[in-house]
Specification:
The complex is a heterodimer.
Chain A lengths: L12 H7 L6 H34 L2 E4 L3 E4 L3 H8 L1 H33 L6 H13 L2 H12 L5 H8 L10 H29 L3 H9 L4 H29 L3 H6 L13 H10 L4 H32 L1
Antiparallel strand pairs in A: 1-2
Helix pairs in contact in A: 3-13, 4-5, 4-8, 4-10, 5-8, 6-8, 8-10, 10-13, 12-13
Chain B lengths: L8 H16 L15 H4 L4 E6 L5 H11 L3 E6 L5 H13 L6 E5 L3 H6 L20 H7 E2 L2 E2 L2 E13 H6 L8 H14 L6 E2 L5 H10 L5 E5 L2 E4 L4 H15 L3 E2 L6 H8 L5 E5 L2 H8 L7 E4 L13 E8 L7 H13 L1 H9 L7 H5 L1 H4 L12 H9 L11 H6 L1 H4 L8 H18 L3 E3 L2
Parallel strand pairs in B: 1-2, 1-3, 7-10, 9-14
Antiparallel strand pairs in B: 3-13, 4-5, 6-11, 6-12, 6-13, 8-9
Classes of the chains: A mainly alpha, B alpha/beta.
Chain lengths: ~325, ~450
C-alpha cells in the first residue's frame, strides 16, 4: 500500500515497444486472440454440458439388457418413449402444474415487486428479504418442512383445522398432492421472481413517473401504464425460467414420496421417471432417451413463449 | 457344493488358508499360507485400506475388533445411504469402475440382481463355500446365487409380532396365535377407540408385503435359470394373505399410513397402533425412536394360518459382499468373512442390535436368555430363534428385485385401501414387462 519510493522501473522502453512495428498478420491474429479469452468458458462448456449431452444422446441409441448385453437399437428407445403412458402421464402432470402454478406464482411475485417499488410500504427492505428468504432454503428442506405441516394426522394444518372445527382436506392425498407441491414451489420461488421483476422496475427512469404525475396519474395508473410495460421483458424471462424449472420438477415430489408413496409414483414427473429408470431399473439407455425427449419438449415450449413475447415487444 | 468353479490346483491351494481362517476362527492363519494371488489371510498381513459401505448400527465397534486383530488393515466405515439409496450408488460406482467400496452391505433381496449383473465378486474364489455349515439354511440359501456365493450373511430378520402390552392388557386381549384370533383382536381394539388400529400396512414397502406372502406359503418369484423367471403374485399364498389384509383394511381395522415417517412413529408411540408385524431387528428401532413407550412393547410369534403351526418368514436382513470394482478383493473377502463368521465378531454384532445368522449363536443359551433392552427386558431372542427355525423354505427373489420393489408403490400402493389383489396383479404386469424388456423369459405359471 504505502509505496514511498518512486516507481523505479517506469521503463522508458515502453513507448518504443508500443511503437514497434507490429507484424501485420493483422486481423487473423486479432480474431484468434479472442478464442484465448473464450477458451476457459469453452472448456468448461464442453466438459460440463456438451460432452454429457452428447454422451446421453449416444447412450439413447443402445439397450443394455440384463440378459443379452448391449446392443444398438437405433430409434427404438425413442419410439418407446413417445408411446410410453407413464412418461406421457408425467408430462401431462407437469403441464397442468405449469398452467396453474406458474401464473399464480408470477402474479404474486409481480404484486410483491409493485408493492415494494411503490414506496408506500413501511419497511420495504424487510418485506423484500422476508419474501426472498424461502429461496435460500434448500428445496429438500422446504419439502420436508411442508410435508410435516401437511401431515394428515399430526400436521399443523390439520390440527389448526381441528381446533377451529374446519374440515381440512387430506393435503397429501391424490387429488390434493399437485396443489400441495405447487404451494411449496410457489413459496420457494415467489421471492426469486420478485427480485427479477423488482430489479427491472428500478431501471425505469424517475422522469417518467414525474411526467406522469404532472399529467395527473395516480399510483395505479403509473403501475398500469409505465411499470407493467417496462416489466414485460423481465416477466418473459421469469416465465421462461419457470417453464424450465417446472418441466424439471424433481426435488419436491421426490421428497414427498416418502410421505405418500401410494400417491407419488416413480413416474410422477418426467424427471423422476428418468431418474428411477436409470437408477432403480438400470435402464440407462431408455432413461437417456426419455431425458432427451423431455429436453426437446422443454426447449420447444420455452422457445415458443420467448418468441411470442419478443414479437409482442417489437409490435409495441 | 464345491463344484466346477475350482478349475486348478492353484485355486484349491487358495482355499486352504481361507478354510483355516473360517474354521479355526482364531489364528490369522498366515503361517500356513502359500503365496497365491487370491489368498485372503496373506492379504490381511499386508498394509491395506478397505472402504466399507454399511448402514448397520454401531458396526464400528465390531470393525474396531477386526482392526485390533489385523492391525495392518484399516477399514473406513462409510454410510452411503440405506438400502436402495446405497445400491444406486453402488451400481453406478461399479459401472463407472471407480469410487465404489471394497466391501458393501447388501440386503438379501438385492443380491441376485447385483450378482447377476456382475457387480459382486463370487466369494467361492476366496473360500467362502466352506462357511455354509455355520449359517442358518435360509440365510445361506439367499447368498448362494447361481452356483456362486456372492456375500456372507450378516443378520437375518425372522418375522415376529411386536405388540403394545399396555393396550392388550387394558383390553384383556391375549397375543393372538392365529390370524383368526388376530382379526378378533383387531375388532376389539377398534371398538375401544375408533382412532386405534391393530397395526398398519406400508403402501410403499414391498418387503413387508413379501414377508406376509412368504409366511402364508406364497412363493411368487422363482428363477428357473439364468435367463428365465416366473412371477405369480396371485398364487394361493399371495391370495390368502392379500384377501385377509384387504378385508382388515376395508373395515378400517388396519391403517395404511406410509411407514417410518414422523407421523407413523407418532402413531406407534402414542398407542394408536397396537402391533407391528416385522423382522426381529425391530427392537433396536423401537428403543431408539420411541424410547418413552419402548418398555410397553413385547415380542410374540407371528400369528399362524393353522393353529399349532410354527411357520415363519424373513423380513430384511443383510449380507456383506465385495464389489467387482474393488482393488483389494482378497483382503475385502477376508474381512467380510471374519466380520460375519468369527465368534467374537458375531457376538459383537449381536450385542449391537443385529439378529444373528449363525446357527452357533442361535443355540447359545447366553444369547437366548439375554434380556432385550428395547422390549422391557423380555428374553425375546427365544421367540426370534424359534421363528428363525420355522422360516418357510424355497423363497426366492427375482434377478431384478430392486426394480420390482421400486415399483411396488406405483402399483400396489394406490390399491392398498381398495383391493391388494388388484395391486398385486398390476405389480405382476410391471414386473413381467420389465423382465421381458431386459431379455428374460418371464412366465406366470
Amino acid at each position: 500500500m504505502s509505496t514511498t519510493h518512486p516507481p523505479a522501473q517506469s521503463t522508458p522502453a515502453r513507448p518504443t515497444s508500443r511503437s514497434r512495428p507490429v507484424p501485420r498478420s493483422g486481423r487473423i491474429g486479432h480474431g484468434s486472440f479472442g478464442y484465448v479469452f473464450f477458451a476457459p468458458f469453452l472448456v468448461v462448456f464442453v466438459i460440463g454440458i456438451a460432452a454429457p449431452l452428447g454422451y446421453a444422446a449416444y447412450l439413447s441409441f443402445f439397450q443394455d439388457r440384463l440378459v443379452g448385453g448391449n446392443v444398438f437399437v437405433g430409434f427404438d428407445n425413442y419410439t418407446r418413449a413417445l408411446g410410453d403412458e407413464l412418461f406421457r402421464a408425467g408430462l401431462w402432470r407437469v403441464t397442468l402444474f405449469l398452467l396453474v402454478q406458474v401464473p399464480v406464482m408470477l402474479a404474486l411475485a409481480l404484486l410483491a415487486a409493485l408493492a415494494i417499488d411503490s414506496g408506500r410500504l413501511r419497511w420495504p427492505a424487510l418485506f423484500r428479504i422476508g419474501i426472498f428468504v424461502p429461496y435460500a432454503v434448500p428445496a429438500v428442506v422446504a419439502s420436508l418442512m411442508w410435508g410435516y405441516l401437511y401431515g394428515d394426522r399430526f400436521g399443523l394444518i390439520r390440527q389448526i383445522g381441528d381446533a377451529l372445527h374446519v374440515d381440512v382436506p387430506r393435503l397429501l392425498s391424490e387429488s390434493w398432492m399437485l396443489a400441495s407441491i405447487g404451494n411449496v414451489v410457489t413459496w420457494e420461488f415467489v421471492g426469486y421472481n420478485m427480485l427479477i421483476l423488482y430489479a427491472a422496475l428500478r431501471t425505469v427512469p424517475q422522469e417518467l413517473y414525474e411526467a406522469a404525475e404532472v399529467d395527473g396519474a395516480g399510483e395505479l395508473r403509473k403501475a398500469w401504464s409505465i411499470k407493467l410495460p417496462a416489466l414485460r421483458p423481465a416477466l418473459a424471462l421469469a416465465t421462461v425460467f419457470s417453464i424450465i424449472g417446472t418441466f424439471q420438477l424433481f426435488n419436491e415430489p421426490n421428497v414427498m414420496q416418502s410421505l405418500a408413496p401410494d400417491v407419488i409414483s416413480t413416474s410422477y414427473t418426467p424427471n423422476m421417471y428418468a431418474f428411477n429408470l436409470a437408477f432403480n431399473g438400470q435402464q440407462f439407455n431408455y432413461s437417456a432417451a426419455v431425458a432427451v425427449v423431455l429436453g426437446g419438449v422443454t426447449a420447444v415450449v420455452a422457445y415458443a413463449v420467448q418468441a411470442r413475447s419478443m414479437r409482442k415487444e417489437q409490435s409495441l | 457344493m464345491t463344484r466346477a468353479s475350482i478349475p486348478s490346483r492353484r485355486r484349491l491351494l487358495a482355499l486352504v488358508p481361507a478354510a483355516a481362517l473360517a474354521l479355526t476362527l482364531t489364528a490369522c492363519g498366515s503361517d500356513a499360507a502359500p503365496v497365491v494371488s487370491a489368498d485372503p489371510s496373506a492379504a490381511l498381513d499386508t498394509e491395506t485400506t478397505l472402504t466399507f459401505w454399511t448402514w448397520a448400527p454401531n458396526i464400528e465397534k465390531t470393525v474396531a475388533l477386526f482392526e485390533k486383530k489385523y492391525p495392518k488393515v484399516k477399514v473406513n466405515v462409510v454410510n452411503a445411504g440405506q438400502s436402495a439409496a446405497e445400491y444406486t450408488k453402488l451400481q453406478t460406482a461399479v459401472k463407472a469402475g471407480s469410487g465404489g467400496p471394497d466391501v458393501a452391505q447388501v440386503e438379501y433381496f438385492a443380491l441376485p440382481e447385483l450378482a447377476l449383473s456382475k457387480r459382486l465378486v463370487n466369494l467361492k474364489e476366496y473360500g467362502a463355500a466352506a462357511l455354509e455349515p455355520k449359517f442358518t439354511a435360509s440365510a445361506w440359501s439367499q447368498v448362494a446365487v447361481a452356483d456362486g456365493v456372492y456375500a456372507v450373511p450378516q443378520d437375518t430378520g425372522p418375522m415376529a409380532m411386536f405388540y403394545n402390552k399396555k393396550i392388550l392388557d387394558e383390553l384383556k386381549i391375549e397375543p393372538p396365535k392365529t390370524w383368526a384370533e388376530f382379526e378378533t383382536a383387531a375388532v376389539k381394539i377398534k371398538e375401544s377407540d375408533p382412532k386405534r388400529f391393530i397395526t398398519s400396512i406400508d403402501p410403499g414397502d414391498a418387503g413387508g408385503v413379501d414377508s406376509l406372502i412368504w409366511q402364508a406359503g406364497g412363493r411368487p418369484f422363482q428363477q428357473k435359470d439364468a435367463s428365465s423367471v416366473s412371477v405369480n403374485l396371485q398364487d394361493p399364498g399371495a391370495k390368502k394373505a392379500a384377501d385377509m389384509w384387504t378385508s382388515l383394511i376395508n373395515r378400517k381395522l388396519v391403517d395404511t399410513a406410509p411407514g417410518w415417517t414422523n407421523e407413523w412413529w407418532q402413531s406407534m408411540g402414542s398407542g394408536q397402533y397396537a402391533m407391528w408385524i416385522i423382522g426381529a431387528w425391530a427392537p433396536g428401532n423401537i428403543g431408539s425412536t420411541i424410547p418413552e413407550t419402548a418398555k410397553d412393547w413385547r415380542a410374540a410369534p407371528i400369528p399362524q394360518w393353522n393353529a399349532g403351526d410354527t411357520v415363519s418368514s424373513e423380513n430384511g436382513g443383510s449380507a456383506v459382499a465385495v464389489p467387482t470394482s474393488s482393488k483389494n478383493k482378497a483382503a475385502a473377502a477376508a474381512f467380510a468373512i471374519w466380520l460375519n463368521s468369527d465368534p467374537e465378531a458375531v457376538r459383537s454384532l449381536s450385542a449391537n442390535g443385529l439378529f444373528p445368522a449363525t446357527t452357533e449363536l442361535l443355540k447359545d443359551p447366553a444369547f437366548l436368555d439375554q434380556p432385550v433392552a428395547g422390549l422391557g427386558g423380555q428374553k425375546a431372542n427365544q421367540v426370534f430363534a424359534d421363528s428363525s427355525a420355522g422360516v418357510g423354505k424355497g423363497w426366492q427373489y427375482l434377478p431384478y428385485q430392486l426394480y420390482a420393489n421400486s415399483v411396488f408403490k406405483d402399483t400396489v400402493g394406490p390399491n392398498i385401501s381398495t383391493d391388494i389383489n388388484t395391486g398385486l396383479t398390476a405389480w405382476q404386469k410391471r414386473i413381467t414387462d420389465y423382465g421381458n424388456q431386459q431379455g428374460f423369459k418371464v412366465t406366470a405359471p
